[in-house]
Amino acid sequence: MKRIVVILLAILLVGCSSSNMSPALLPENSRIPVELPLTPQSALSKLANNSWGIFGGVMISNYRAGQEINREISGYEPYYILNKVKEVTENKIITTEIGEERVAVPIHQKLYQGSITNVISITSNNPMDKLVVAGYDETHNLLIVNGFIPATTRIVGITYKPYLSFYLSLETQGRTLGDYIEGDKAWGSIDNPVIEVAPESYAPIYWRIKIPKDAKNIPDKWLVWVHAVVGEPLNKGTINTQINESGFSVMTTDNNSGTSISTSIDYYMSIKVTMR
Amino acid sequence: MKRKLLGILLALVLVMIPATPVLAATTADVTLTATPKFIAIADNVTSYDFGNVAESATPAMPTAYVGITNTSSIQTDQTISVTATTWAGGVTWAHSETATPGVDTAGLKASDGDGLFDIIVKNGTPNDIKTNLAATTDYSYEVKLFAPTAFGDGIQKSITLRITAAEG
To answer: Which terminus, N or C, of chain A has the lesser number of Cβ atoms within 10 Å?
Structure first.
């Protein structure tokens, strides 16, 4: 009989102790945003002039397929594009026809504030030209320039303050980062894949992650890259103007023999995810 | 007495056993942490003109001609590539992924400031020019052209060289 009482007491004690266990997971520590030792504004101040960069770095833990992480639900700290490109110079060959004194000149980036006061300079290697910027066609991104000598070819240099267009995407590069291996870039997306940023400014990059619930072979630790690049120039080949591919300065392409290279820069930053 | 005690204990056991929790989560938290990183590099040269080149010529930039100012706050890996498969202008040149020149086919090799030209500049699968580059560490590079063995025309050719910086 005593033995039965002891057994019952033991069962009772076990029952009491297990009743103290929480039926739900403890709240996770959602440190968004963390105390940032570096803010987008302070990072912007570290940028070299006429340069740009990317700022951020988000890690996701306790994730499982089917969940969605986005700015509406999660309120995360976004990545940022930082832009300190104050001016852009483009050189173009322009040939005027007989009687032609006014030319619509295509420019690669959008003119800041759409105002011709942000055209810093316009020059011609033909001293007879007296070039004056008379207007701006925002729809077609054309500067209206007066003062050309008709039936002549010259090289025109235009320096202006631009909005810079950034192209953003989630990408894979075929490489790992520590013990994180690349996931499928289709598991995420960028909400605002093209961003125009004013000089001396920064803009948020909003992204979302959602793996289909039935996805297979998900690594325990995976990453996807936030890729940022300055928008590629459009080849607006009117009025004998050829625009070369370049991030900031557009080179003249003329009909002389020669070989030239222009340079540009792009960036990758990771979003790391740890599965539950 | 013993029976009464036994009865009370049994009742308590019966009450407690159903109270043992069901271990099913009612919440599914995801932890997000933000660690600010900053990647930024700038080059001091945005264009280079090799000028008029002869067939099969191999003109090169001066050593360390392009300077990269790296203000990144984290370690980075950096690659060098061209952004197109062809050189634009007139009869285009194909860009060789092995830096092997041919008829209207050109190649490029680069090096990281030592003049060795030991890195093939490709369009697909870019090669590293710097790996595990420490934060705020600058470097320089130079590029050599491997001109085509024969030209289809004399019109200027151009291509864009791209440095890509990635968290490393």
So the answer is: N
